Amino acid sequence: MPPTVAGFTARHIGTDAAAQATMLAAVGYASVDELVKAAVPASIHVDPRATSDIPAAATEAEALAELRELASQNRTARPMIGLGYYDTFTPSVIARNVLENPSWYTAYTPYQPEISQGRLEALINFQTMVTDLTGLATANASMLDESTAVVEGMLVARRASKSTSDVFLVDADALPQTRALLEHRAAALGIELQVVDFARQPGVEPAHRDETPATLPDAFGAFVQYPGASGRVWDPSDVVAAVHSAGGLVVAAADLLALTLLRSPGSFGADVAVGTTQRFGVPLGFGGPHAGYMAVRAGLERQLPGRLVGVSQDAVGHSAYRLSLQTREQHIRREKATSNICTAQVLLAVMAAMYAVYHGPDGLRAIAEDVATKTETLAAQLRGYGLTLVSDAFFDTLRVVVPGTADRVIERARALGYQLLRVDDATVGVSVDETTTAADLAAVATAFGLPDDGAPVDPEGAVPLASVPADLHRQDEYLQHPVFRMHRSETAMMRYLKALADRDYALDRGMIPLGSCTMKLNAATEMAAVSWPEFSRVHPFAPADDVIGYLAMIEQLETWLAEVTGYDTVSLQPNAGSQGELAGLLAIRGYHRANGDLERTVCLIPSSAHGTNAASAVLAGMKVVVVACDEAGNVDLDDLRAKIAAHADTLAALMITYPSTHGVYEHDVLEITQAVHDAGGQVYVDGANLNALLGYARFGDLGGDVSHLNLHKTFAIPHGGGGPGVGPVAAKAHLAPHLPSHPFAQRDDHAGGYTFEGGAISAAPYGSAGILPISWAYVRMMGGDGLRDATAAAVLSANYVAARLRRHFPVLYTGESGLVAHECILDLRPLREETGVTVDDVAKRLIDYGFHAPTMSFPVAGTLMVEPTESEDLAELDRFVEAMIAIKAEAIAVGAGEWPADDNPLVNAPHTAEAVVVEEWEHPYSRETAVYPVRALIRTKYWPPVRRIDQAYGDRNLVCACPPIEAFA
Ligand SMILES: *Cc1c(COP(=O)(O)O)cnc(C)c1O
């Protein structure tokens, strides 16, 4: 026999046939297929041929070649469209050491702060950068994009305002995509938007000062764009004062690069500042992913959505970082939720923060001055040629008046390799960025009709911000913390990034057995194309003809995802699972309303649901009614029927997760969905657990009308330390008209030939398109069979862990066959009863054994949820099982009084090197037990940088910006 070269599936799946045989023996089944068929209820099995349209698996080389071919169909024009998206130089040291480094991109959300100090420091740098530049007190880390951040800002204003008005004022010069999002989201919440031309308000712009002062309508808040979408730089102070005097709050979207030169939103009184950090070194990626930001003035910090990194201290009083105001997102409070953001944009926030660390305040200012100077130069050329600009006060964007010839100008520019913005047939927009050269300016000038005399446009003598009134020029300092000075050479930067990465535990060290999050392999081949300029340097509003490769890839991926889920069509626009939920629920809302069922607003949600479900329902304007679960963890059918009966005329939807967040395949799922349909409701199936189903059953066949998927769970997009994500929404045909559209969408039709007409849900038409090559490559290299094999291997691994640990920790829920799905919940409550050892102690002790803890106390308090995924090999699974068994024995010793309850390896975990390198060792267990409980650790030890972190201390003493260096001395 010739040697066989292992295909990608065998590289992706950690267990080979021999290992699987061993595991099957432990579980008690003869084959993997038999096991999965026993676990998945027979009534929902699909014929494997259902995945037939997915091409047979490509090799890694073939997939890369196909991606090269797709990439070559994108035209890498120079994007000068602006509207919140700018080309940027990603410093190579950041591209290589963050974006392309698994130590950063395979990390999980920092819920376990002791093993996350590196990324938490990076994120606190991000928060400091944002608070400094915006002039506000507290920033989070991070938002999904600028437009969703504006919506969140509107919601903060509504919560915090004392005004009873339902009106929110929107700047007429807002980004068009932001206006589209505001309209869609406000409608669902009963908020009335009023678009106001703030330029016509008193004192806004010198040209208008002589006009009669208009008064602003009564409102709970107002949104201003600064600088405006048109590029206009203006002074919002008077608008802010007027809104404040009526009891409203002001949300300002501000460009961070402009803020290095212009007065900060905080200085003119804005309550909330939002925006994007894309142009801080994060590639365009045809729309994302990029980190949005939000900062608030003092007094509003407890209203912030998203994650907030703060400083606390560890068990011995050392400063340490953690997520503040609750370990989990403070706002996802089920039906009382105010925001649904879960997965954010951590990896991109890290990149943007490091761009600021690398350039420092003077470097950023120099970049901004260069951009402003180049813009001024181009403006002078155009004006010299007799052209008029819409505004003479600008930073980086010009609006040029070209009556009747906009299309001609844009076509000429395009022929020269430049993308400009068509505002209307008489106006063209041009945006300059750090990558723009003098030759670019000259070429653009010729597109406007200036003679092409071959001379580059000379910035000599141009003064940045020449027409911006002096009182709008920034005077105060920013980024004065030493971190923005200390790492300016490439050597220092490389070492800083390495030092931070070394403090963290990511998939490049070992297993991250997180229930509900599917921390599977993010293969290097899948990641490769993300960095290619044909994918990374593409503006989201580029003309369709310039993005043919992207559109082809998107169409294929939509089609594949529709097929594997049993739906008719898919939108890739939502940029996280939470946003997919919202898009799906808003589609349901739109459908009911189109049918005249205005009163259908009740959303039934089982008590076991993920927190985002209820939060999304609230944000979709629905009323959440909780359905009980029975002792087996399944939806309580009697309670469901009772709730359906009680809300018969008002039922909008049921949101159900399949398999459930309890990790079991509910047998009654078809009965459940039928009951909802009989009552006129729609069924939303939360697809985050698709890794337990792919190739074996399909949501569409279970009675689902709509689902979101998490490509950052099931489809191999890395977790990035808490983002990015992609949360496509997949639906049946009747909901298709209500799926998200976008004002700048390059294409109207989607998988299956459907046209979407619902409101926008992300700032970019295809959301975080820049990372779609990852999921595309995953499906392409697995093929239909490989996807099915991955599911089987994942289910086998979970059942193997359950089978081996069951004697030590009860497995809380199983299906009728006694099997779990792709994850299992270990019940640690009996252990606590018996020994006093808590789930926290076990989680922290796992760090000493070289593991990331499983999901803690979700969905059931006092439990650990383990999802091993298909990618871990048997040796790693066994290492985990044995660690858990050893920790159990330690707990028993505590219970038996061998170690005191307040001084044992569990309560003292995790142990740092410092903890054991002490003159006098005073604990009743040895140093070896503390840090080398298993001999293999002597060579492979991960040393946590801090001891257990005091959560309450950090909330009492809220510090969310870089602490002084001495704090770590
Ligand atoms: C992860 C998850 C979500 C939310 O997805 P995000 O991308 O984090 O917004 C929703 N439901 C379930 C069951 C999940 O596991």
TrEMBL record:
Record's protein name: Glycine dehydrogenase (decarboxylating)
EC number of this enzyme: 1.4.4.2
Cited SUPFAM superfamilies: PLP-dependent transferases
Role according to the record: The glycine cleavage system catalyzes the degradation of glycine. The P protein binds the alpha-amino group of glycine through its pyridoxal phosphate cofactor; CO(2) is released and the remaining methylamine moiety is then transferred to the lipoamide cofactor of the H protein.
Sequence ranges assigned to domain Glycine dehydrogenase C-terminal in this UniProt record: 790-911
Lineage: Bacteria, Bacillati, Actinomycetota, Actinomycetes, Micrococcales
Transmembrane region(s): none
Record-listed N6-(pyridoxal phosphate)lysine modification sites: K713
A Pfam family recorded for this sequence: GcvP2_C
Name of the gene this protein is made from: gcvP
Gene3D superfamilies: Aspartate Aminotransferase, domain 1, Type I PLP-dependent aspartate aminotransferase-like (Major domain)
GO terms under cellular component: cytosol; glycine cleavage complex
Keyword hit for Oxidoreductase: yes
Similarity remark: Belongs to the GcvP family.
Keyword annotations: Oxidoreductase, Pyridoxal phosphate
